[in-house]
Amino acid sequence: MDELDLLKKDWEKGESSFPKLSYNDIYKMILKKSSSIVKWIFIISLLEFVFWTFISFFLKDNKSMQRFEQYDADYILIPMAVVGYIILAYFFYLFFKNYRTISVTDNAKLLMENILKTRRTVKQYVAFNLIYLVIATFVVLYIEFDKDQLLISQAQQAAANGEAFKFYAVLILTTVLLLAIAVVLLLLFYWLVYGILLKHLNRNYKELKKLEE
Prior knowledge:
Elements: H1 3-13, H2 23-58, H3 63-69, H4 74-103, H5 108-147, H6 149-160, H7 164-212
Helix pairs in contact: 1-2, 2-4, 2-5, 2-7, 4-5, 5-7, 6-7
């Protein structure tokens, strides 16, 4: 039981050696905690973006990446990257806006609405990242099949041997398996980071509902 629980219990009992807290005192504590949580959601989302950007630049000199850059697929990759960055920038704006909105909220009803809005924004952000990963994976696979001469040659050889189905099945299943592992790892990360923050935010929401009853 944290400090807020103890103080709220004391407030409800109306008898204790602790200073008596009013409704507004408890509301302000919930507001402060909620504002802090949303601020951390915004900060962590930015740190996550910086981390993945650093990783992409770090891997740019990798042989596989250099080979992929020779495919002349900028007509697909650049629009995808631009759209991705625009949507991410929009989510960063929403996170910051949610933080600013919650920080200046002056009544419990609005605070509850803003908490729900923040939770919804985080879930949409996580869903976008996972969907973008899946789309990007299959776009890369398409480019590989279209441009990679070694892969094209292997596919042609498999077709000549009557094993085209087996070749494509193994390739697609391997891709799906690796993609599933990546999605699970990302979900675990999001659950550990954003999930814990949302859990505390949801707890604040429930506290507000009790205050309003």
